[in-house]
Amino acid sequence: MPVDRGLDIQASFHPLGFRYGEDMFGPEPELRWLDAVRASLRNPDCDGPDPVYAIAMDVGHPRHREELERRNLLFGVVAYAAGRLGDEPVRSQGHVHRVSPFSGWSTPEIFEIWQGRALIYMQERADDDPGRCVVIDARPGDRVIVPPSWAHAVISAGARKPLVFGAWCDRDYGFLYDGVRAHGGLAWFPLLDENSRIVWTANPQYRPGELIVRPARKYPELALDAAIPLYDHLERKPDAIQWVSRPDFLRDLWPRFEP
Fold first, then answer.
1. Domains identified in the chain and CATH numbers
2. Is the pTM of this model over 0.85?
3. Statement: residue 194 has pLDDT above 90
């Protein structure tokens, strides 16, 4: 069953991008080329689809423009190409969110999967000791939270079915890649076996640790409403997403937060 997105937007794959409905605003998509992703891969010299994915930051209904700016929020959409990157699935670059001048925090993010299957990998730090390393296996309709300051990447679990998702982000978003690239990627690499199933391999440039893989959960502590599209929270339950741009509202939650 298709996921209700709360927005009239469709991904296109030939070429990679998006089609907006009449009551929508949105930019020309930014294309992420394979050369930009290589530094996060186990085999940087691999072949794969190019562009790897398309991203449109700041889409929505025109009536919400002022409210989005007042709350310092934006909604982004991402579409991945089908295929594989050498022996890895199609995936984003590993990064950490920069500190936003709006809140003074490295900001969290909420993903909502619309099409395909996503593996959202995250680790507490991009240092030699990555801390907790977690993979959330998310299906259409699932939501996943990346906490403040965690390094992360979104991975497509299906080579034949493209991945499409939306996300709430801070309006002053920015991505920091230095820590991840200095280690040749994140602490765990997703690799495709001979049956195109994903197996996880540790990156030896980090201290050894455990990887936790589990399905998405509901996050009752954050008051997200599973009965309405993630985008519609802006109009119907805005306080349930305001912490994306004001993570300090939940400062006591983040140190013990379980993605």
1. 9-256 (2.60.120.10)
2. yes
3. no
